[in-house]
Amino acid sequence: MKFIVSILFALGMSSAFAVPQPQPFQRGSFQKIISAHEGKPFIVAMWSLSCTHCSANMAIFEKLVKKYADFNLVLISTDTLEQKALILSTLNKYQLGTVSKQKFSGKVASWVFADSHSERLRYEIDPQWYGELPRTYFFNATGKSRGVSGVLDEKETELWLRAQR
């Protein structure tokens, strides 16, 4: 029995602890994300496996997801689908998407660039964004957003979350 449970967990079939599978981020995906969160505040965080400063933001998100049960977070990796295993490993490291559903009513969604023309995807997200990472967008409940490049200030990010409640 232990063996079967171990296999199911390794395959990501444990519903309470499954890391979200990254969805392919293609043209039109950003509008789908915005539409899916209509009327709700949320954060979109752009990151990459090769981004040395992205880990600081991931650590902040890990704390905030645990602290705020209704926090909606969208993580978009600018890597490729071929790096899915490493992306999942990183998400697991920061326990993003592994919070028990009984304690977490918010949602962590994960996406990964799936278009060879990453410039086109970046432009669709924000015509003023040229690919610097980390890049974070704060969307309030009315859909108005603010973009921030670089490492986030944890206290300011938490204050923003509190103000959205």
Q: Keywords for this structure?
A:
165 residues; alpha/beta; six-stranded mixed beta sheet; 6 helices; globular; disordered N terminus
Produce a short descriptive summary.
With 165 residues, the chain is α/β, with parallel strands linked by helices.
Describe this structure in words.
By secondary structure, the chain is an alpha/beta fold. Helices cover 36% and strands 19% of the residues. It has a six-stranded mixed sheet with strand order 1-4-3-2-5-6, sandwiched between helices. Helix 3 links the parallel strand 2 and strand 3. The N and C termini lie far apart (44 Å). Mean pLDDT is 86; it is low at 1-17 and 98-105.
Q: Between the first and last Cα atoms, what is the distance in angstroms?
A: 44 Å
Query: If you average the pLDDT, what whole number results?
Result: 86
Largest sheet: 6 strands, mixed
Q: Can you tell me the residue ranges where pLDDT is under 50 for at least 5 consecutive residues?
A: 1-17, 98-105
Could you give the count of β-strands? 6
Q: Biggest sheet, strands in spatial order? A: 1-4-3-2-5-6
